[in-house]
Amino acid sequence: MWVLLRGGYPLRILLPLRGEWMGRRGLPRSLVPGPPRRRYRKEALPALEVPVLPVTATEIRQYLRAHGIPFQDGHSCLRAPSPFVKALQLKDQTGATASFSLFIDKTTGRFLCMSSLAEGSWEDFQASVEGQGDGAREGVLLGEAPEAEDSEEIRRIWDRAIPLWELPEPEEAQLARVMFGLTKVTDDTLKRYSVRYLRPARSLVFPWFSPGGMGLRGLKLLSAEGQGNEVHYKETTIPRPGIYCNLFGLPLISRRDVEVVLTSRELDSLALNQSTGLPTLALPRGTACLPPALLPYLEQFRRIVLWLGDDLRSWEAAKLFARKMNPKRCSLVRPGDQQPRPLEALNRGLNLSRILRTALPAWHKSIVSFRQLREEVLGELSNVEQAAGIRWNRFPDLNRLLKGHRKGELTVFTGPTGSGKTTFISEYALDLCTQGVNTLWGSFEISNVRLARVMLTQFAVGRLEEQLDRYDEWADRFEDLPLYFMTFHGQQSIRTVIDTMQHAVYVYDICHVVIDNLQFMMGHEQLSTDRIAAQDYIVGAFRKFATDNSCHVTLVIHPRKEDDDKELQTASIFGSAKASQEADNVLILQDRKLVTGPGKRYLQVSKNRFDGDVGVFPLEFNKSSLTFSIPPKSKARLKKVKDDNGLVTKKPSSGRKGAVPQNSETCLGQAHHSNQPNPSKPSR
Ligand SMILES: Nc1ncnc2c1ncn2[C@@H]1O[C@H](COP(=O)(O)OP(=O)(O)OP(=O)(O)O)[C@@H](O)[C@H]1O
After folding, report:
1. 227-259 residues labelled b (16+ CB within 10 A) or e (exposed)
2. Is 430 helix (H, G, I), strand (E, B) or coil?
3. Quick one: pLDDT band at residue 665, thresholds 50, 70, 90?
4. How much distance in Å is there from the Cα of 512 to the middle of ligand 1?
5. What is the number of other CB atoms lying within 10 angstroms of the CB of residue 21?
6. Are 293 and 208 in contact (CB under 8 A)?
7. Is 182:267 a contact under the CB 8 Å cutoff?
8. Same domain, 308 and 368
9. What domain of life is recorded for the organism (predicted)?
10. Where is 638: in which H helix or E strand?
């Protein structure tokens, strides 16, 4: 379902449909009510195509001053008296500050009234100040309460769940403790955090209480499954993850607390609080994102320590989240052998308070010494694989050349007109998105509906036209992906596009933006010199955006007009050399019609700043699934492949420029898209 984001940003978000999720949650049948339901929010369908310029903190301040509204400047929000709380109620509050219960996000202008839980966009706020509508009375602005069917299920599960120590069989309780690593977590801690156990689902249950103690708003279930020597955990939330905004542990935070430790899992918070006594909160979606809606709850803290996990991804997420919360008040616990995640640290008998004391300030001045960098460098050296980024599941050869998809890089992608650039880049981005890379698409040429159709077909690896009965199944799974689309179509100004991307990074923690294609930001300049200057400026803007936001940008650029029988080279990218100079990676979709016949394509990596490996590998287009895979007998054909300098590559080797990845044959034996999610075996 397409839902237009309130607040005027030209973004559409894909929200999971609510039909099949019961089954997908894998809860026991007895807890699954009735037949699957499907609901459409009709009012959400019309899309706003005219972008509205985002608001700035200065504009918000000016507006408040102009309307005589007092405010206090906070870390990520401005605080003001709430127009949604009656004057009488204010008197009951504990003092002047408490009456400032309205939090306005400095970046987006979105507001939350802590007293009434009214929330809305900056436009909604202005409308209510200017008396154009009483949003709260209309029910438009009230924070999303659980839907009736959710409430029912939440209540039913919560009532059936029991404290671990009340399990009738001591062996069962012991097994659960071992499975969840809770052998050192006391009953007292579990009780303080109201953690229960749902026997039929063999899951721990973490409650989401409404702020102000107004009842149960949701639940997170955590199940554990032993696979060999490893235990795999699966999380299920009610309501669905997109709107599950529980800062677990919030009811235990006192107004006077000025320090907090943020973790990415509820169990880590239990361990941390038990062994250090410090206030701690667990983020609802772990390292995947920090929704700005949670920021008002963190305003009271002068110091926030982020201890998110033991891998490089957690470290990257911690740095990203610190930016949002104001890095000056944030410190980060660096992952390391002696600094595992909190629960593991407790189980290994490590001193958690001491680990917390090693947390590094997130704030970097413009000039740093190697002393400040040495830990970062060590982190990269000791986690070489993770530092290389996220590996593609569908393109093993791309991994061999590029090593992975890294944050903060700019990839330029080109290929002849109609050669399949959009189709390829769609699958390349989808692959990453299915692995949790929050992705934003800017498709200026083809409509979002068509793009989504291509992506869905690639996701399902087959023609959905012929299996419409399975459409819902795939669509439901597709909707759970962290995938967002800009609603731009046709020519756009680069400023508007960058502003929208900035907004998306803040709100959805976007790590990958795909722009298809750059020509749509170049305006209508007729003179070629103007066009080249415009392109250089745009490429520079995307480069800066990628670096400043630690966000990967993949930019599709048309090639210059060249002879049909010539292969493209880095220099064939339209415009000056700026694009290839600024890019970290240059990918070329080679359409070698003359050599290989129609339909065959090769992907050439002609620049790779990360480690220099460049080369080509074959792609075979599958028309029914719109996917690309390694064609058989690639070795023979590869002999004909020329490198960027026009030299013939005689045989596959692992050398650098122009080389074909050595073990491209090994890919041939691989099952096609073996890593594709299987809808009959759901997992999150
Ligand atoms: N390797 C291929 N062989 C045959 N058809 C293909 C191949 N790759 C893509 N196609 C089909 O060709 C059409 C054009 O593909 P696509 O829009 O991805 O090309 P493009 O390079 O992005 O086009 P443009 O230059 O207009 O931006 C689509 O219908 C697509 O399904």
Report:
1. eeeeeeeebbbbbbbbbbbbbbbbbebeeeeee
2. helix
3. very low
4. 22
5. 23
6. no
7. yes
8. yes
9. Eukaryota
10. helix 634-638
For residue 420, the CA-to-ligand 1 centroid distance in Å is 3
Q: Tell me how long the chain is.
A: 684
Cα separation, 159 vs 161, whole angstroms? 6
Residue 12's closest CA among 597, 645, 617, 489?
Answer: 489
Quickly count helices (H) and strands (E) in the chain: 26, 25
H-assigned helices in 309-366:
312-325, 342-347, 352-357
Q: Tell me the H-state helices in 363-439.
A: 370-382, 384-387, 396-402, 421-433
> What does the CA dihedral 356, 357, 363, 364 come to, rounded to 10 degrees?
-120
Inside any domain, residue 645: no
Give the residue, by CA position, lying nearest to ligand 1 atom 2.
599
Say if residues 85 and 116 touch (Cβ distance below 8 Å). yes
- C-alpha 652/C-alpha 635 separation (Å) is 7
State the angle between helix axes of 471-479 and 448-460 in degrees (0 to 180), rounded to the nearest 10: 110
Q: Please, which pLDDT band fits residue 64 given cuts at 50, 70 and 90?
A: very high
The answer to whether 109 touches 103, Cβ cutoff 8 Å, is no
* pLDDT higher than 80, residue 256: yes
Q: Tell me which H or E stretch contains 476.
A: helix 471-479
Query: Are 61 and 154 part of one and the same domain?
Result: no
465 is written with which tokens? 């036209």
Q: Are 419 and 589 in contact (CB under 8 A)?
A: yes
Select from 114, 240, 216, 212 the least CA-distant residue to 155: 216
Distance, C-alpha 422 to centroid of its chain: 22
429 vs 228 pLDDT, higher one = 429
Please give the tally of structural domains in the chain. 3
| Mean pLDDT along residues 574-603 | 77
Q: Do 557 and 436 fall within a single domain?
A: yes
Taking the centre of ligand 1 as the mean of its atom positions, its distance from the CA of residue 621, in whole angstroms, is: 10
> Do 412 and 452 share a structural domain?
yes
Residues 434 and 285 in one domain: no
Q: Could you tell me the end-to-end alpha-carbon distance of the chain, in angstroms, rounded to an integer?
A: 19
> Residue 332 falls within a domain, yes or no?
yes
Q: Is residue 469 one of the residues assigned to a domain?
A: yes
Q: Which of 381, 411, 429 corresponds to the end of one domain? A: 381
Virtual torsion, Cα 275, 279, 284, 287, nearest 10 deg:
-70
Cis peptide bond N-terminal to 517, omega within 30: yes
Nearest CA to ligand 1 atom 11: 420
- Of 413, 414, 422, 602, the residue with max ligand 1 atoms within 8 A of its CB, to mutate for a pocket test, comes to 422
pTM higher than 0.90 for the full model?
A: no
Higher per-residue confidence, 52 vs 328: 328
**Average pLDDT of the chain?**
78
Higher pLDDT: 82 or 134? It is: 82
Quote the domain boundaries for residue 481: 396-618
Residues 6+ apart with CB under 8 A from 424: 415, 589, 601, 603, 619, 628
User: Could you tell me if 589 and 413 are in contact, meaning their C-beta atoms sit under 8 angstroms apart?
Assistant: yes
Does pLDDT of 546 surpass 90?
yes
Mean pLDDT of 564-581: 73
* Tally of CB atoms within 10 A around 41: 11
Kindly state whether residues 184 and 332 are assigned to the same domain.
Answer: yes
CATH number for the domain harbouring residue 478 = 3.40.50.300
Number of the ligand 1 atom closest to the C-alpha atom of 517: 27
- Verify that 376 and 400 share a domain, yes or no: no
- Residue 187 inside a domain? The answer is yes
Counting residues of the chain whose pLDDT is more than 90, the rounded percentage is 40
Pocket around ligand 1: residues whose beta carbon is below 6 Å from it? 415, 417-423, 445, 599, 601, 621, 626
